[in-house]
Write a structure and sequence with these properties.
5-stranded antiparallel sheet; about 425 residues; about 55% helix; 5-stranded mixed sheet; alpha+beta; 9 helices
Length: about 425
């Protein structure tokens, strides 16, 4: 089974995170190695120069104390510097101490005798490398000589290798951490996309389901009406049923279009000063007709002036959705109470009903699209599309308001829309 595009994207992003950090580590490590290798080489040369200086100093001290000329040689014999080979030669390359020296050391002495100082690398047959430093110096009453100190560059390479091992271990640990952190970050980055796609798939499936029902009813009524000749009353009844289903279909399409425009920010929101109490009075009068037909009492319990800034059409739609839901889920003989006023200076609308209420586990989902709760509740509101509260939440959010639902343990539901104080910023 092929991987999903998002899974492929997750893998590619994680790989890019790891590759990018790997390149950074490679460049940083390369620069660091070059700098440290140069530093190590500089320290090695400094130690060789120090060794030749010690050799010259020892020779000068022994010369002053010596009675015999040969006592200068004893200074070289007595001087010992760990991991350094010391040579004392004449300017023409003849070895004074120790007893012998390699030909390349004698050649270096002659070159240093001519130049004054000399630094060079000598490659050995076993692939090793020796580093040499030579200096010409003169003692009082003596001919000039050449002091040479030699060190094996294996010391440098050992230090360099230990650094590589340490840096490599740290880099490997860093890459593992980056791989884990990168995977986590990619997962967090893609999670909203995955949720959006999942919501889109669910929305499309729910929308198709909701549209299929009225379309199926329309088709069935039309087919039944056309199967055989009928009297005028039968055709009228069929057309009335078709008209009712077409109205329901139209409401679903309008609600879907409203939400689509809201998400794409194509629905402009007007900003003007208006009074929420005036909107509520008008909406209550319109909703009383539906409530009366169902045998539900709709009352305006509290009525205070509540100025708000917003879109009058959208705010009226918000109020109508809350009233329609309250009436829809309230059984015959029940009541719906509406309050409008202010709370601590904030305009507030409250719609309370005496219906069966909403279970606590369903309250977090009531603002989701097409959500209707348990089947009994869905049947009770058989004309709904499950989009009303989703639209109401969007209208409230667009106006900076908070929309909440609360159900008591004994039943009944209270919807509260609380608007901000002051003037909202223009969109």
């Amino acid at each position: 089974m092929p991987d999903s595009p998002l899974r492929v994207l997750r893998r590619r992003l994680s790989t890019w995170y790891l590759a990018t950090f790997g390149v950074i580590l490679l460049l940083l490590g390369g620069g660091l190695f070059v700098a440290i290798r140069h530093q190590f080489a500089t320290e090695l040369d400094a130690s060789l120069r120090q060794a030749t200086s010690e050799l010259e100093r020892a020779a000068a001290i022994r010369e002053r104390e010596a009675v015999l000329a040969g006592r200068v040689v004893d200074a070289v014999d007595e001087l010992h510097i760990p991991d350094r080979s010391l040579y004392l030669l004449t300017l023409d390359g003849r070895v004074i101490r120790p007893d012998s020296a390699p030909d390349w050391v004698s050649a270096a002495a002659r070159a240093a005798g001519h130049r004054g100082t000399l630094d060079l690398d000598h490659e050995l047959e076993d692939e090793g490398t020796l580093r040499l430093h030579a200096e010409r110096f003169a003692l009082p009453g003596r001919a000039a000589m050449v002091a040479i100190a030699v060190a094996d560059k294996l010391e440098l390479e050992d230090r360099y290798a230990s650094l590589i091992v340490a840096f490599g271990a740290a880099a490997l640990a860093a890459l593992i951490l980056v791989a884990a952190a990168g995977s986590l970050l990619v997962g967090q980055s893609i999670a909203p996309i995955e949720r959006s796609l999942e919501q889109m798939r669910r929305f499309m499936a729910d929308a198709a389901h909701e549209l299929r029902t009225p379309l199926s009813v329309l088709r069935s009524r039309a087919e039944i009406a056309l199967q055989q000749p009928r009297d005028g009353a039968s055709y009228v009844a069929a057309l009335e049923g078709i008209d009712a289903e077409s109205h329901r279909l139209s409401r679903i399409v309008d609600d879907l279009l409203t939400l689509a425009r809201a998400e794409s920010e194509q629905r402009p929101i007007e900003r003007s000063r208006l009074f929420l109490d005036d909107l509520v009075v008008d909406a209550v009068e319109a909703a009383r007709i539906v409530a009366g037909r169902k045998g539900v009492t709709l009352t305006l319990a509290e009525f205070e002036e509540a100025p708000v800034d917003g879109d009058p059409h959208l705010l009226r739609q918000l109020v109508m959705i809350l009233l329609d839901n309250a009436v829809k889920f309230t059984p015959e003989g029940g009541s719906v109470e509406v309050k409008v006023g202010s709370d601590a200076g904030a305009p507030q609308l409250t719609v309370s009903d005496t219906g069966p209420g909403i279970p606590a586990d369903q309250l977090p989902h009531v603002f989701e699209r097409f959500y209707r709760g348990d089947p009994a509740r869905a049947r009770q509101a058989n004309s709904g599309s499950g989009l009303g509260l989703a639209i109401a939440r969007w209208i409230a959010d667009a106006h900076g308001a908070t929309l909440t639902l609360h159900s008591g343990a004994s039943g009944g539901t209270t919807a509260t829309a609380r608007f901000p104080t002051g003037t909202l910023p223009a969109s």
